[in-house]
Amino acid sequence: MSEAAVRQEMAYSDVVDRIDRLDRSIISVGVLGEAFGYGIKALKVGRRAEGRREILMTGGVHGDEPAGVEAVLSFLEGPVEDYLDEFTVVPCVNPSGLELDRRANKAD
To answer: Would the pTM count as exceeding 0.85?
Structure first.
């Protein structure tokens, strides 16, 4: 399969829209910080109990690689209530890179 067939364009506003539609009874949403005018969303999934792990999952480190963002969002849109460990999820670490479809952020 060619790289063009695998790649898809994705706007950060689409990421935020999908986050906004998630089930808030099992997922809480916050903002880690801001980069170039984009709020970087962080989500908590699950209920951490004594002896359970806390897992960090990120996507979108390189803006020209939207597959990681899509994978994280697809995970969140699935049956996350089945997980007893707590996940901290940052679907897109580099929103300006995603918007610009480039590896680096807006400053580079």
So the answer is: no
- Please measure the distance between the N-terminal and C-terminal CA atoms of the chain and give it in whole angstroms: 30
CATH superfamily assigned to domain 3-100: Zn peptidases (3.40.630.10)
What is the Cα 65 distance to its own chain's centre? Answer: 12
42: nearest Cα among 52, 50, 31, 51: 31
- Tell me the per-residue pLDDT of 5-48, one tens digit each, with 9 for 90 and over: 345 678 999 999 999 999 888 889 999 999 999 999 999 987 76
Buried-exposed string 80-105: b where 16+ CB fall within 10 A, e elsewhere:
beebeebbbbbbbbbbbbbbeeeeeb
